[in-house]
Each structure stands twice: as structure tokens, then as C-alpha cells.
């Protein structure tokens, strides 16, 4: 703005209040509507934006973990394994990779993910065989035919 | 005897391969991979490293930023010891859970130690005249991964 006379210049002075108001408005400049210009409307919106961002920082960790789990599930289904089987067998074979890294491997290193899936599948089968055992009856059990007279 | 629905269990019968043959096959594969490492027939190596209580998938010339302080000056070379996985195009070495220190060597340099952008923590209850605003600035460290090397000492 070009101010052409001295009284006009005096009227447009930058007071402390201006700077205090700008401190709040600077966080509202990218909002939609009058709340990016008018201080009264901006105060409430900026406050809500800060509170939402603090809460979202805690939710982000949960959201990202579910995202990784979805991706790992999709990738392991391509190799014929379900997610709980994949993760539990990987942990039983003492491979302690977290979900973030396994999801990254599934995206960028498909061969490595395939080998991890094969490892989990093999450990699963070994677990089944160990659980089934020899197929014999346990010792110390005998059957007796009861006679009723 | 006729086969009914209960003669065999409902799950598919799984037979593991013969352990002796399997051991021979494993030894062959290990020897081949050892030869490949010794002759250097691999391209870019990637590694999964456990560092600053997080797991990172890194390659050489990578930048890593940690949200905490490292007790090392800028320009110091650091060797990362907890390596969980190393891989190349044709083979991967999976650690259970860690790989040996004589097998992999991951070197990194500390590039810069700065502070994060000022994050705002605000709590507000409506109609109770309660609001608290706190500005949090975390120290950060940036590392550049220089090299990942593997040595042919598989058995």
C-alpha cells in the first residue's frame, strides 16, 4: 500500500498487538475461509489444530503398524501363508525383524521376502510334525473290557 | 480296508525331506554362497541394522536421522554391530537373531547434530478454561552409511 500523507502513515503503525496477533495467524495461513484472516475465528481453529496434531502423533504409531501388518498379510498370502502363521513361525525361528522392516522387504526385496516365507512355512511343518508325534499311544494306558454279571 | 472320511486326518500329510540329503544340500549351498562372496559376485548390499532402538533397512550412501543424541563428534566413523539381515541380489544372510561380527561390517559417519523443528504439544478442555501449550525441540543426529562389507566366513 502506498500511503501518500503523514497522517495516513501515523495511522498504520505496527503495535505490539499486531505482532501478538500475527503469532497466531501465521499458523492459520493455510486454512480455508475467513479463519485464515480474522483473528477471532483463527484462535479457535489454531487451538483445535494443535490439539488434533498432538493426539494424531500418538495415533500415527498405531496407524502405521496396522498398515505394515496389512502389507505383510497381502505379501504372505501371495506366497500361500496367512499373516499369523508367517509372523509366529518367524518368531519361533528366532528371526526378530519388526513389521516395518518386513513390510519394506516385501515391497523392495521380493526374493528376500520369498525366502522368509519359505522359512516360516518349513518351521510351521516341523511344528506340526513335532505336535503330532509318533502316532503311538502313550505308555501306561491299557484298556479293559468290563463284564457286567 | 476301504477308505472312509476318517481313515486319514483332515489336514494334508506333510513329509519333510531326508535329513542326510538335506544336510548335503545345505553344505553345497553354503559353499556356493561362500565362493560368491569370496569372488565378489554381488552388486549392491542391503542390511537390516538394529540401531537407536529401531530397525533400519540400509544400503551404502544412505542417510539416517535419529531422534536422539549420539555421543560422537561430527565426522566420527561408527561401526554398527547389531546386524539382523544382509542381502544382495542372489543371496540373503538371515541372522538368528543377529549375524556375527566377523561376517558383516557396517560403517557410518556422523554428519550433523541438529535440533528438530519446534513441535507444539497442546492440551485443551472446552468450557473448563484449561489450555496448556508446550514447544518440544528434540535433538537429532544424521548419519551417512558409508559401506556394508561381508566376509566369506560361512560354515
TrEMBL record, chain A:
Coiled coil: none annotated. Keywords: Ribonucleoprotein, Ribosomal protein. InterPro entries: Ribosomal_bL20, Ribosomal_protein_bL20_C. GO terms for molecular function: rRNA binding; structural constituent of ribosome. Pfam families: Ribosomal_L20 (PF00453). GO terms for cellular component: ribonucleoprotein complex; ribosome. This is Large ribosomal subunit protein bL20m. It comes from Glareola pratincola. The lineage of its organism: Eukaryota, Metazoa, Chordata, Craniata, Vertebrata.
From TrEMBL, chain B:
GO terms for cellular component: mitochondrial large ribosomal subunit. GO terms for molecular function: structural constituent of ribosome. Belongs to the bacterial ribosomal protein bL21 family. This is Large ribosomal subunit protein bL21m. It comes from Dromas ardeola.
